[in-house]
Amino acid sequence: MRGTKFRSQFEIGLAKSLASKNIPYEYEQMKLTYIPKPRTYTPDFVLTKNGIIIEAKGHLDKGDRVKMQLVKAQYPDLDIRFVFVRATNKIYKGSKTTYADWANRYGFPWAEGTIPEEWLKDDAGT
């Protein structure tokens, strides 16, 4: 963890939690190209023992939602999961759809606040 530049306090907290449980992970090491316009998606965390990709999100804007739907469609074998700071946040002001609703609609497993213990098991991806 030392020397790693995390993008938020939330990511720091998740990294500390993983480190305290001796869960091996990579932070922003994987790079995936997706289209229509070639762009690069860099997952936040990849749990190296089971391959689960974890996106830590405090804010899930339209660009993030579109990107993640494209990535999921183009890389269907990846196990991408979200950990939201607050899953009850609305996807935009005035919307009835929460982050959790959006994740459920598009088939992304999600959690709120912390990474669930069952995601940390070696066979959690199967």
Which helices and strands, and how do they pair?
Blueprint: H1 9-20, E1 25-27, E2 32-34, E3 39-41, E4 45-47, E5 53-57, H2 62-74, E6 80-84, H3 99-105, E7 110-112
Parallel strand pairs: 5-6, 6-7
Antiparallel strand pairs: 1-4, 2-3, 4-5
How would you summarize what this structure contains?
With 126 residues, the chain is of the alpha/beta class.
- CATH class membership: Alpha Beta
Query: Structural class, from helix and strand content?
Result: alpha/beta
Radius of gyration: 14 Å
User: What helical percentage do the residues reach?
Assistant: 25-40%
**What order do the SSEs take from the amino end to the carboxyl end, as H and E?**
HEEEEEHEHE
How are strands sequenced across the largest beta sheet? 1-4-5-6-7
Shape: globular
Number of DSSP-assigned strands: 7
N-end to C-end Cα span: 28 Å
The amount of beta strand, in percent, is 15-25%
The low-confidence parts are none
CATH topology: Restriction Endonuclease
How many domains? 1
Q: Give the biggest sheet.
A: 5 strands, mixed
Oligomer: single chain
The number of helical runs is: 3
- Mean of all residue-level pLDDT scores: 94
Supply the CATH architecture. Answer: 3-Layer(aba) Sandwich
Describe the structure.
The strands form 2 sheets. Strands 1-4-5-6-7 form a 5-stranded mixed beta sheet, sandwiched between helices. A two-stranded antiparallel sheet has the order 2-3. The protein has 126 residues and is an alpha/beta fold. 20% of the residues are buried. Helix content is 25%, strand content 20%. It has a single domain (9-120), classed as Restriction Endonuclease, CATH 3.40.91.30. The chain starts with 8 loop residues before the first helix and ends in a 14-residue tail after the last strand. The longest helix is centred in the middle third of the chain and has 13 residues, at 62-74. The model has no long low-confidence stretch (mean pLDDT 94). It is globular. A hairpin with a 4-residue loop joins strand 2 and strand 3 (39-41).
